[in-house]
Amino acid sequence: MTWNAFRKTQVAGYVFIIVGILNWSGNFVAARGLADMVEPATLNLLRWGVATIIFLPFGIRSFWRERHVVARLWKELSFIALTGVSLYDTVIFMAGETTEALNMSLIATLSPLLTALIAQFIFKTKIRPCMYVGIVVSTFGIVLLVTDGQLSRLLALRFATGDLLILSSAIMSAVYNTTISRITGKLSSISLLMSLCLFGTLYIIPLYLWETGGQLTMPVFTTDLIWSLGYLAVCASILCCLFWNEAVQIMGAPKAMLFYYTLPPVSALIAWIVIDEPVTLIQVLSGTIILAGILFALYGGSPKFRRQEKRNYGQPSEVTY
Q1: In sequence order, which ranges of 7-39 are alpha helices (DSSP H)?
Q2: Contact, 135 vs 174, CB < 8 A?
Q3: CB neighbourhood size of 98 (10 A)
Q4: Is the pLDDT at 60 greater than 90, yes or no?
């Protein structure tokens, strides 16, 4: 099987989504370490500015060759650049200043559900009931994880302004993924990523100027900041988007977003490996529940459907999830 043929198979979709998640999951560990060093919009501008410079030699030829398609799709590209690049991380960093981590984690779990709802009711995609059941199961696993097994903590929740920002980021994530699944076939993956880098970085600049009061200021570039920016730019931005967008094209947004639930346990695993944070029994249990929910959403349902899915294995589904 050739590489181009493999890229269109469901197996490739799972490989791409796993690699994308692995690159993305460290984003939260790195962001946690930079929270007190760099302001949100400044950090996002540095991250995507560096990513654009690094990717430019690899993406500019393809971007120029497909410039007429980019020009025709500039509104859609601007929309997904705003929701997936310019605003998403900036809003999350801003929300962290006014809301609790528990609230942020719980509200963020709405992203896969919102993705499925937008796909079903706006884009008229047929969503199977087992998809929603799997989302509920995985959401329970996330709740168990972020409350450290103490579900009574939910009764003490207090909501702040930052919670609305997190809710908006969940909506942006859902909109980004459902929209990009409609545009990926019209542009090559390289041109798409180059477009996101250029448009996204451009649209961060007004946020940066608003944050700095119109002044051009930069943080002190310590060794930790430089290494963290390198990781965020290459792994959590370029590689993550490249593989994630490929997976969304193959699997569809609802299926791809199911793997969003794996971010907290994978982040915990990376934190254990990198900064020696302990792994608890609750983390193992919640990770198992999250995985069970994902598997049920992907493979649950009637035997008739499973036989049909088996016959279609290796072919991207564009209708039913």
Answers
A1: 10-34
A2: no
A3: 14
A4: yes
The answer to whether the beta carbons of residues 153 and 147 sit under 8 Å apart is yes
Q: In terms of DSSP H, where are the helices of the chain?
A: 3-6, 10-34, 40-65, 67-72, 74-81, 88-95, 101-108, 110-121, 129-146, 161-180, 189-212, 223-233, 240-251, 253-258, 263-275, 281-299, 303-311
pLDDT tens string 234-265: 988 999 899 988 888 888 888 888 887 777 67
Considering only CA atoms, give the Rg of the chain.
19
Phi-psi region at 214: left, alpha or beta (left = phi > 0; alpha = psi -120 to 50)? left
Q: Of 169, 146, 154, 203, which Cα lies nearest the Cα of 93?
A: 169
Residue type, 299: Y
Residue at token pair 């809003």:
91
CA distance 27 to 241: 12
The whole-model pTM stands at 0.78
- Could you identify the residue written with the tokens 């946690």? 32
The DSSP annotation for 118-171 comes to: HHHHTS--B--HHHHHHHHHHHHHHHHHHTTT-GGGGGG----HHHHHHHHHHH
Four-residue CA torsion sign, 62, 41, 162, 33: positive
The C-alpha atoms of residue 7 and residue 2 are separated, in whole angstroms, by 9
CA 239 to chain centre: 12
Q: Can you give the pLDDT at residue 35?
A: 67
Which tokens go with 119? 């796909």
Backbone angles phi, psi at 320, to 5 degrees: -110, 135
Q: Contact, 31 vs 90, CB < 8 A? A: no
Task: Please give the single-letter amino acid code of residue 164.
Answer: L
pLDDT for the residue 62: 95
Of 60, 35, 89, 17, nearest in space to 239 by CA:
17
Locus of tokens 């509920």 = 136
